[in-house]
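does this look right to u?? adenosine monophosphate version
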Amino acid sequence: MRVLLIGPPGAGKGTQAVRIAAHLSIQHISTGDLFREHIDRGTELGQRAHTRIRVGLLVPDEVTIGVINDRLARPDTERGFLLDGFPRNLRQARALDGILASSRSRLDTVLDLRIPEAEVVRRIAGRRLCRRDREHIFHVDHSPPEVAGACDVCGGDLYQRDDDREATVHRRLEVYRSETEPVVDHYEAQGLVTAIPALGPVQEVLDQALGAISRSQGVAEDC
Ligand code: AMP
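got this back:
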């Protein structure tokens, strides 16, 4: 199963991606997480990425496509993968089409998480991540940890991403509109996109996402 998860910052991509990938037993691949791991390790790639990430701009395509190319070449993706945060522009989408064509595989479905922009800003301002495992995500109002500042799952410190500050969020939304929305059109033209309203509770959004995936499996089997 090869799934893309697209949506503006704050739509809940990370939260849903972890659950969908676990449900399908496929790899969750987040370019944002891969960059943050490089930043934490202080690699040259991480430094290059950080100068763009902290101001809300995209990391250059040659860096991003290289990272994804390497990641998709690993054997653990053979069963499938869920891409979270890639592709974010048309050049990346075409590069992914090429990578898949060269391994004679194709995408099964593209889930487009939809959410009003005002909600994006509200969600991101309160978002807190676990320093030990960034897949543990909280919100100061809507899903607060039991102990303030500590992760419920592993006890790690919670922190706010430096690109989650309000001014940066507006920049990221502009980038989403101009660069990433055309990617949705690119996959619409291939009949792969299902829009998922992402405003509701996590479980409701997840159920819709899993429903769309199983419908796409039915379609793939019919082909
Ligand atoms: P995310 O965790 O997906 O919100 O990504 C955080 C930041 O990492 C983004 O705002 C971009 O600066 C950078 N980033 C993540 N994925 C990509 C991508 N596919 N292309 C370029 N930059 C990316």
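The longest strand covers residues 109-114. idk if thats expected tbh
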